Structure formats: C-alpha cells, structure tokens
User: What shape does this take?
Amino acid sequence: MDKKENKRKFEFFDVTADVGFRAYGTSIDETFQNAALAMFEVMTDTTHINPQIKRNITLESEDLQALLYDWLSELLFIHDYESLVFSQFNVKITKTADGSLTLHAEIEGDEFNQAIHEVRDEVKAVTFHLMEIKKENGFMVQVILDT
Assistant: This one.
C-alpha cells in the first residue's frame, strides 16, 4: 500500500474537560490546513459543509506557535461572529524580511444550519497549553481547544 494513502490528517486525544488534537501534513501549510479542519470537526461533521462562501485571511506573527494560535483563533472568531463553518483551507506561510511569518489563506465554507450541520461541541477558545509544533517525517501540530 502506498504510504501517502494511509496518511492521516488529524487525530484527537483525551484532555480533561477540553479537546486536544494533533494535525499532520507533509508541509507546514498542509498541517495548518488540517489543524483548521480538525477544529471545525470538533464543532460539526465537516463532510456536510458545502463550500460556497469564501473568505481571505492574512495574519502576521513572530513565530510558528503564535501563528498557529492566531490562525485558529481568527477562524473561531469568524465562526462566532458570522455563524460560518469551514471545510476547505488553502494556506501559504511565508517569512518576511524582518523574520516574522505571514499566513495567507483562502477558506471556503457555509452558513451554519442545524438542519444540515450536526451540532457537536462548542469551541470557546484556542489555548497555548501543551501546544507543540514538530518537524519529523513531515509536520505535526498539537493543540488543545477550550470547549
């Protein structure tokens, strides 16, 4: 079997009173995309999201950990403010001249509708608690969400 076919995008792990996940990818861009997908999977079944609404996001942070936090927090803000859920993410992370990192993303989703979208856990916040980013045979990020 081709190794790539068996590659998981994310997995959940047990955390008391919260939800933890590890997202994976062959690049940091893909890993951030899968982290976003994992977060929305906590809220609803992302396979039922019709990607008909597009948003563009640009963020700048001093390092990858801060950028991951800012990325997921921005998505959560858009979800809370506009009642949107997302299932498709196209992320590009670049380094600026001063050494900070910029994330440009195009995200696609739909208005949350309880008749279509399963109601799962409410995500209140992204946390820095036990947050990790590792590069080993691709990338892995670990995140705990306050639910």
User: Anything to note?
Assistant: Residues 20 and 113 are 25 Å apart (CA to CA). The domain at 28-121 is CATH 3.55.10.10 (Archease, Possible Chaperone; Chain: A; domain 1). The first strand starts at residue 10 and ends at 15. The mean pLDDT is 94.
